[in-house]
Design brief:
single chain, 259 residues, mainly alpha, DNA Binding (I), subunit A, two-stranded antiparallel sheet, 56% helix, elongated
Length: 259
């Protein structure tokens, strides 16, 4: 989506006023050729001497462009280039999109909506969608932990719909999963500070029925064992989502690997 065309659309929607409108018009006219001097000339007319004093409005202008770019639920290379340009033009740094609560809420809404839409087709994250998430994290200048928190909120909702959390392209701790399970009253075997390898009979029955009484890897129905998908030693839980049926041979060959 071209920068000039998008800002022409933003201007026509009458959502910009006064100084923001004047700056938006410059970008609509010059596009990637707009300069900080162009912006500062306009700011000076309004008695503003620095971009820092215009930060609140410049973040909002950039958010307007991002929202417009995400109308097709994708961010193209050109759109990423345009967003980088706007951030440089306005001197928007990491953390500026979440420094103010009203912007942080808007960013959270945008990201969670995007991730929600990714889960709607098949409740899994494919390679293209995983790349889109990386682009979203970069666009908003979020840290790994900040983005992971927003991602996990939607990932846990997808798990609630029956998705396999191993298909969610995220890292969910045992504690996070246990808190979610308690909140949603799933009846699963929660981990506590005094963790035990013991798998409850209810979980074993559920896993046996789900896996059809045979090894999920080779189909053998002899010498079956209940295996932790995420090894117990790595924090794996004793829940039906983390337990599978493996024959003794497949289980020994797996050792402490995940899967």
């Amino acid at each position: 989506m071209q920068l000039q065309k998008t800002f022409s659309y933003i201007i026509s929607s009458s959502i910009l006023k006064d100084i923001s409108l004047d700056v938006g018009e410059v970008i609509a006219k010059k596009g990637l050729k707009a300069s900080r001097k162009d912006c500062l000339d306009i700011l000076n007319i309004y008695g503003i001497s620095s971009l820092e004093d215009f930060k609140d409005k410049s973040v909002k202008l950039t958010l307007f462009y991002i929202v417009a770019a995400l109308k097709d639920n994708l961010i193209t290379e050109e759109e990423i280039k345009n967003i980088r340009f706007l951030k440089l033009l306005f001197n928007i740094e990491e953390g500026d999109f979440t420094k103010e609560k009203h912007f942080a809420n808007e960013v959270s809404k945008i990201i969670r909506t995007q991730i929600y839409l990714m889960h709607q087709d098949d409740d899994r994250i494919d390679t293209q969608e995983a790349l889109h998430k990386v682009n979203l994290q970069e666009v908003f200048g979020l840290s790994y932990d900040e983005f992971l928190f927003l991602n996990n909120q939607e990932a846990l909702d997808a798990i609630d719909r029956g998705s396999d959390w191993l298909e969610m392209d995220t890292y969910i701790t045992v504690n996070e999963y246990s808190q979610w399970a308690k909140k949603n009253n799933t009846g699963e075997d929660f981990e506590t500070e005094t963790r035990s390898r013991h798998i409850s009979e209810d979980v074993k029955d559920s896993v046996w029925n789900r896996d059809g009484g045979e090894c999920v890897q080779c189909g053998n129905n002899e010498n079956l064992e209940f295996d932790h998908i995420i090894p117990f030693s790595e924090g794996g839980a004793n829940t039906k989502r983390n337990v599978q049926l493996l024959c003794q041979r497949c289980n020994r060959s797996k050792s402490n690997k995940i899967g």
